[in-house]
Amino acid sequence: MTKIDRRAMFRLVGTGLALLPLTALTARAARHAGAAVTMSGMAFAPASLTVKAGTAVAFMNEDGAPHTATGDGWDTGRLNRGDSTEIAFDTPGTYAYACAIHPSMKGTIIVE
Ligand SMILES: [Cu+2]
Questions:
Q1: Residues with Cβ < 8 Å from 92, sequence gap 6 or more?
Q2: Which residues are in coiled coils (predicted)?
Q3: How far is CA 55 from each of CA 39, 52, 107, rounded to the nearest angstrom?
Q4: How much distance in Å is there from the Cα of 80 to the middle of ligand 1?
């Protein structure tokens, strides 16, 4: 009985530790939240956005047509009118992206 209780406690501690990095990531993203890119008139606005590392960028579709913001290794998925998705940019660099449905729609996120 004592053994089982100890193991259960161990599992709880393990679960808590596993959640820590996720919490830290969420807190960091929230600190710089507020940047947004609008999909409107078949274009991303602003087409080029500069943010600090750790910023969560919200992509919001205001068009009748569905759009995505699709970069190298990241993707908002299909967003219909009124939908939005946040992508966190943690590493400095220049991130080009396009709409997977309308490839002529292009944008860039610059992370400093
Ligand atoms: Cu599109």
A1: 53, 111, 112
A2: none
A3: 19, 6, 17
A4: 10
101 Cα: distance to centroid of ligand 1 (angstroms): 5
Helix, coil or strand: residue 85: strand
Q: How far is the CA of 89 from the centre of ligand 1 (A)?
A: 21
Q: Is 57 helix (H, G, I), strand (E, B) or coil?
A: strand
Ligand 1 mean position, distance from CA 112 (Å)? 27
Taking domain 32-111, whether its CATH number is 2.60.40.420 is answered by: yes
Domains of the chain, by residue range, sit at 1-31, 32-111
Tell me which DSSP letter residue 109 carries. Answer: E
Per-residue pLDDT tens digits for 19-67: 444 444 444 444 455 699 999 999 999 999 999 999 999 999 999 999 9
How do residues 87-100 score in pLDDT, each as one tens digit? Answer: 999 999 999 999 99
